[in-house]
């Protein structure tokens, strides 16, 4: 039974002031929930995983809920008798003392069964009040902003706030029956059976890498790391292009497209322009070096190849954002927008050291800023339920070792990157280091060097330094430096039998 009208907290309007709309709230629901908790403390655990004191509209109710929760978590009893000592006695609530008000809440409490529904009502009304606040802030800033203030910055800030509210605005979750989890696992196996290569994740288009990883798994943060010159961007670009090229969609009854193979790719190119990225992909597809394309040293036949490749690429679901100096909040907002407007299955970030933290952290150390960035990227991967490939630089300590194959400790600001990443891939090319150590021609050392160069030519190692759901190890790939193309490594055991 709801408390009598006389006990509901109200502020009498001043007859001389114009009428105004009150923020959404339900005092009766707040009183009923608090009463249920005071009568049976178990009611608190029905709402404590999503409801907080700040969600209550009435300040005295915030204080009662927070105090009661503190006692219950300490395995103490929360009743009108135990609570009244923690709330100021001089508080006047509609002519009642705090002791009288607590006693009234308990006396008129409804059944504990309804506690969850009351809690959900209070929570949803708090979200509506927060929406109003965001809307008011947006209007006020738009009115008062100086002429040189970019509207796009306000749009991105408002969008970030709305998505943060949407992410926080969930009271589902908690324990679930194992049968439901099994159904999800079986569905994943079914999708793997239907996909190219029978993979549970999105195929990279590189056979041996897919075999080791099972494809790119949803919600995974995948780090591709290496020293300059190791072709990190080339590997990420190759994988992104392979995924977009393999894209197949199926129209659902609700009118939305569901990806059945490959995927829609978003590529944040923080270092390279979109034109440079396109030139690399054209070079990789046509076999014409990008340096030749840029110099204009191409034949008519080459131009026809470029034209055909460009026509094919025009229809690929491959989206590039070349904006430099993005903050992690701006990147997240743009990724969400792409998923909402075009769809998104794989996100590539080149590279994370060029990202900035939020404004409130820019005064912190770079390590703290990097922690925020990697944590946010992992959270974004989970939120959008897709793999994020993020490229990272390695520290110079690699160069001081004889064996220059990277290790996890070589990651710059390695603590947060290593901790947040689900998969860490290192690229190592022996050929790169050898070509910088060429001895004097005609000497025995040069002959030895030439032999080593011949063995290392066109070979690359992708070292899986970390993988949460699979083995570590090394995958050998073929790399054509002139056209920046990675492909499957064809060793003697895989060559076709000569007749």
CATH fold label of the largest domain: Rossmann fold
CATH classification, class level of the largest domain: Alpha Beta
Distance, first to last CA: 90 Å
What structural class results from the helix and strand content?
alpha/beta
CATH H-level homologous superfamily name of the largest domain: P-loop containing nucleotide triphosphate hydrolases
| Shape annotation | elongated
Instruction: Tell me the major beta sheet.
Output: 9 strands, mixed
Spatial strand order of the main sheet: 5-4-6-7-1-8-9-10-11
Order of helices and strands: HHHHHHHHHEHEEEHHHEHEHEHEHHEEE
- Uncertain runs are 1-7
Provide a count of the helices: 18
Average residue-wise pLDDT: 78
Count the E strands: 11
Strand content: 5-15%
Number of domains: 2
Instruction: Round the Cα radius of gyration to an integer and report it.
Output: 30 Å
Helix content: 40-55%
- Report the CATH architecture of the largest domain: 3-Layer(aba) Sandwich
